Amino acid sequence: MTRTTYPLRLIFIFFLIQTVPLDWKFYRDLFSVNWFHYSGIFQLAHYLPRFGAVSRFADWGIFLLVAAVGALIWTYLEKKKDHPISNDALYYWLRVLLRYRLAIALLAYGLIKFFPLQSPYPSISNLNTPYGDFNEWKLFSLSLGIVPGYETFLGLVEILAAVLLLNRRTVSIGAFIVLLFTGNVFMSNLAYGGGEAVYSFFLVLIALFLFAHDLPRLVNLLALGRPTAPDTYKPVFAQPWLKFGRLALKTFVWIFFVGLYGAQVYAAAHHDPYQYPGTAGLAKASGIYNVREFRINNQVLPYSDTDSIRWQDVVFEKWATISIRSRRPVVLDSTNTDNIHTEDQDRTFELEGVAARHYYSYQADTAHHLLTLQNRNKHHREEQWVLHYERPNDSTIVLSGANQRNDSVYVVLDRIHKKYLLEEVANKGRSRSIKL
Amino acid sequence: MPTITSTAQAVPEVQSTREEGQAVNTTGALPVWKGYQKIAFRIAFIFFVAISIPNNAEWYQHVFSIDWTRLHYRDLYDIARFGSGINFFGNTLFGSPLYGYANWIITLLVAIAGGLLWTFIDSRRQQPTQAYNNLYYWLRVIVRYRAGIGIIGFGFTKLLPVQMPFPSLGLLNTNFGDFSAQKIYWLIIGIVPWYQVFAGIVEVAAGTLLFFRKTTTLGAALLVGALGDIVYVNFAYDGGVHVYSSYFVLLGAFLLVQDIPKLYSLLIQRRLTVPVYYFPIFKQWLQYTRIALKAGVIILFLGVLYYLQLVNYWYDPYKQPSTAGVRTLRGNYRVTEFRINNQVLPYNPLDSVRWQQVTFEKWTSLTYRVNRATFIDLSNGGGDPMRDINRTFELTGTGGGQRVFHYYADTIDHVLYLQDKYKPVPDRRNRVAGVGGDQNYRLNNGLAEDKKNAAKKDSAEQPFIPASAWAHIGDENHMIDKRVWTARRDREFATQPKNEKRKKMLLHYETTDGSHVVLNGIDENKDSIHIVLDRIDRPYKITKSTLDAGKY
């Protein structure tokens, strides 16, 4: 029985402290998790310890240092022992730990892609925003959002890789898929300014470690064309409770991360997609409206492409959001990490990474025809409006009221019967040119 | 602390057993081919040879007319990208192209017939050949080189990022919903040139690995992984290159067939696995020939093509016009005043005549938006046109009333001769690519019914640009850097453009430094227009990359 070597101890500690939650925040989250909502399991699966508000590669330096020192102490303690841990066993258990860690991460992401929730179809406001007014990360998400079938396919690849990782004999195949797939996710995070570069590279690192196991064998067999002996290490679970323990753990992962989480995500895809607010908007109002008439403090402002006060157009979403395009600058909400929120006010995907329009959530008092607007952007929280609405006909909305500074407005909105090239081509194909 | 074995330990120790592996093919002898394997092989042989060989005369004409002293990147690209498969019987099955895959099925049917015939002949021979290992080896060589060269030709346009150009000002100003899905995919890669480089490296690396026997498996696995994704992307975004990308998946999968039983034996069955590779022993002169051919392919498709693609990226990015626009006229402009036939139209977003959001691109294009339906070219804006006016990426798949005009500038008399970059009958593109082109946009394929409309000539065409102005404008062919003056470019500029039925405008411009521009002249409907433009600072949230194709 060979003793554990220093490098393996170091790697073991390095991965252990990033895989097994030592962070008190994890347990805070664990007990506050809503088990009936998929946001809870996603949040747990998305765990990665960090020192600052966001994960940085610099954190890994610290983990590496801890691992280096820890391995030294371990070496010192081991010398005194009569029955040291064998290299094989430690390596085996580390691989088990990492296989499950990686599989759980892939399932968490794979399922919200398989039921295409992660990148939803663009909102009406986003469809009516110039390309150059989005940041790269938002464009990345919207571009995936227009093709839910492709998003499902990507989810399927992640789920397939996870299943292969959960099976001991197919680990290398699964790890190879992860290297290609999550490697590309990592590159995309770098290229598009995503916030999950560290997390995705952590997953790539695990896949590298797992794949390294069979790499020499594969090189020997496929590149050098030499006879190759397989991996013959096989754990023996001699005692019954170990057998049952193993079975129970395996079953738990399948039931919890595939069954329960999968069912929750499936239900959410139909009733509770997480990127957009859930509260319904004003009935039959959704669409884009031209601002035919605009008065501020009783002064008429004519159409203008320079004025920063006049509204240019207004969008009513299907949910309770109104967006107003004007030349008043927007301070960008540049959130670029993946979070699943349960409350409408936290579901800010529609305004993340995009300028040109101001986004407001509203509460509608349909009895008194009042809309209470609140700017959704954390940089423009102070802005509020209370607007009375009238709907003289199906395509006209008249708004009048004032904001928190008592500026009064009177606005007449005409519905624009906008046809989007995106949708026209999706319906008719692009075999010949069309007029639009 | 719970223990598993009898020894006391801190970490649960699992007892291990080491099994003696069952050896597979320990003798190292070449396998004997079974009957069904031979039949399958004969079919596969005919099929893969057929889809690895160019099937259209235009490709051969192209290759024999290449001027090897003044190469254009597209000369080599076109060698690498050709239509293949058996097409004597057309490319439709029961009248349907089956998304472009009908050719594969026809080729397979012919291969099955040929394979059975071969089997029949073999059964009658006294001493049927046993050289299947040899034949399989050579079939793999053909497929390896076909796939390798093809994907490298494709990959270099990404490695030196020109396949998906960075969006022009006009495109940046267009609403997200006013693009086709195809356009959105091209743009999402276009905004991150460094990522495009990465994608190009993956493709070129996969191709290069296929040139070497020992790295073929890795190359084929990369090819199947990367191109498999691209197939799905093309279906999802209606990209039109699904058949050509599937083609590489098919070739890659064929190359992996040999390794799958070995991988299954080693990883899943956990047996001692003895690979047997057949490798023909060459006579010395054959060995030299082999090395020379291999070196030739590598020098041509990795060395020369890299250089050609690099100068293309620097001076002549093929999807954007390569001539610099008038230097003072650059950027985003607000239409401060708009008069048509001496009538002032005030700003109104719903006005169907008044121009909005004018841009002068850094190349020879003027764009504006107007709230009126217009014809939209839905091709992918690719192909190999040399003239700026035919480089259409800035308008294809783009709606929202965006109009794009190419201009020749007489900078002495200050006149812009503008022509609509949209034309109803586009030129045929990707001639040698066969089914490899953008097949979803049928107008580019030069179909007969579309050609009928093309026959009409421009009626009573006045010479649009007088000879005196041409003297001021200069020769478009030579307006770019000398390093990209190629035989191919000369050839295209020597031929008159066809189907030039375009909207035209003639505008006189006045400006001092470009911040304030007055345009006067005749618009596309022969109305007189007077337009005052003021340059605006239009910040974007997309950041400009450090990689910037072209010199303007």
| Average residue pLDDT of chain A | 93
Number of helices of chain B: 15
The tally of structural domains of chain A comes to: 2
Strand content of chain B: 5-15%
Shape field of chain A: elongated
Helix-strand topology string of chain A: HHHHHHHHHHHEHEEEEEEEEEHE
Main β-sheet description of chain A: 8 strands, antiparallel, barrel
Looking at the structure, what is the overall shape of chain B?
Answer: elongated
Q: Are there runs of chain B of 5+ residues with pLDDT below 50, and where?
A: 1-27, 454-460
Give the uncertain stretches of chain A in residue-range form: none
Structural class of chain B: alpha+beta
- The helix/strand class of chain A is alpha+beta
Distance N terminus to C terminus of chain B?
Answer: 73 Å
In N-to-C order, the SSE pattern of chain B is EEHHHHHHHHHHHEHEEEEEEEHHHEEE
Number-wise, the strands of chain B total 13
Strand neighbour order, sheet with most strands of chain B:
4-6-7-9-10-11-12-13
Radius of gyration of chain A: 27 Å
Quaternary structure of the protein? heterodimer
Name a few traits of the molecule.
heterodimer; A: 436 residues; alpha+beta; Lipocalin; eight-stranded antiparallel barrel; 13 helices; 11 strands; 46% helix; B: 552 residues; two-stranded parallel ribbon; elongated; disordered N terminus
Note down, in words, how this protein is organized.
The complex is a heterodimer of chains A (436) and B (552). In chain A, 46% of the residues lie in helices and 16% in strands. Chain A has helices spanning 6-19, 24-32, 38-45, 57-79, 87-114, 124-127, 136-145, 148-166, 171-192, 197-212, 215-223, 240-271, 421-428, and strands spanning 234-236, 287-296, 299-300, 313-316, 321-325, 357-365, 370-375, 384-393, 396-403, 408-416, 434-435. In chain A, strands 2-4-5-6-7-8-9-10 form an eight-stranded antiparallel barrel. In chain A, helix 8 (148-166) crosses helix 9 (171-192). Chain A is elongated and about 90 Å long. Chain B is α+β, with helices and mostly antiparallel strands and 552 residues long. Chain B contains 15 helices and 13 strands. In chain B, the strands form two sheets. Chain B has an eight-stranded antiparallel beta barrel with strand order 4-6-7-9-10-11-12-13. The N and C termini of chain B lie far apart (73 Å). Residues 1-27 and 454-460 of chain B have low confidence and may be disordered. At the A-B interface, helix 5, helix 7, helix 8, helix 9 and helix 11 of A face strand 1, helix 7, helix 8, helix 9 and helix 11 of B. Strand 1 (234-236) of chain A pairs antiparallel with strand 1 (15-17) of chain B, so a sheet runs across the interface.
